[in-house]
Design goal:
CATH class of the largest domain: Mainly Beta
Largest sheet: 7 strands, antiparallel
CATH architecture of the largest domain: Sandwich
Structural class: mainly beta
Helix content: under 10%
Number of domains: 2
Number of helices: 2
Strand order of the largest sheet: 1-20-17-22-15-14-13
CATH superfamily of the largest domain: Jelly Rolls
Number of strands: 22
CATH topology of the largest domain: Jelly Rolls
Strand content: over 45%
Length: 242
């Protein structure tokens, strides 16, 4: 499924907060994953209430802001462009503390069971992530599978930012349920048997076990995209049977 940001209707969620629902939960193959895109003006505040049935991941596409436990909190986490956060159960407020617009991609997934008592919010930034390389390809894993296990995730499998050099591809392959969001550059992506052109602001949703691939069609520019995968923790860490 390919979704283009400019084709999705804008809703005013609150003063200074514009919302686009890129993937309604009922349109995901599992019926569990939802993706929303937010634009916060310098006065904008987005409240994400506590919900023990959900698990959240969000990514700061652009801008500078704060993440706090409430509007009246005296402490918070500073957020910059290319910051990723995993937050079990929600219960936080995002506010724009920069000069210009702040853009955030918020992904939530329903969970089966109850979050662990030790589950705590995790945050990472692109500049702090150790990359690994293949020819024409760089992956920066913000949260690896083992990180998610230690954090207490029930469904979020991992989060990467991946980069393809001009003319390179990520050959067709199969993964768990996946959300991909194009951050920079242009190319083509195959999903559910359909290969389409993509650009910054394009969301591609791929059901689990479905063939998908990515091509950077530019001769001069990198293509960079965010990838989040989802799978029940019991399926990820099932024992190896003889």
């Amino acid at each position: 499924m390919h979704v283009y940001l400019e084709e999705v209707d804008v809703q005013e969620r609150a003063e200074g907060v514009q919302e686009r629902v890129l993937l309604p939960r009922e349109r995901s193959a599992s019926g569990m994953v939802e993706v929303r895109h937010y634009c916060l003006s310098p006065v904008g505040e987005l409240e994400v209430p506590v919900d023990p049935t959900l698990e959240y991941v969000f990514y700061v596409i652009q801008g500078r802001g704060l993440m706090q436990g409430s509007r009246t909190a005296t402490r918070g986490r500073i957020l910059y462009t290319d910051t990723a956060v995993w937050a079990p159960k929600g219960g936080f407020v995002l506010s724009n503390s920069g000069e210009g617009e702040m853009r955030v991609l918020l992904i939530s997934t329903k969970v089966r069971g109850t979050h662990y008592e030790f589950a705590r919010t995790r945050m990472n930034h692109l500049q702090r992530v150790e990359p690994w390389f293949l020819a024409g390809y760089v992956a920066r894993p913000f949260f690896k599978e083992e990180d998610m296990a230690v954090a207490g995730s029930l469904r979020c499998h991992g989060l990467d930012v991946e980069t393809l050099a001009p003319g390179y591809e990520a050959s067709p392959h199969k993964d768990p349920e996946e959300v991909l969001y194009v951050l920079r550059g242009e190319g083509e992506i195959l999903s559910e048997g359909v290969r389409k052109s993509v650009k910054p602001g394009t969301l591609v949703y791929t059901p689990p076990g479905t063939l998908h691939g990515i091509w950077n069609t530019s001769r001069v520019d990198e293509m960079q995209y965010l990838v989040i995968e989802f799978q029940d923790v019991k399926d990820r860490f099932a024992p190896i049977l003889p």
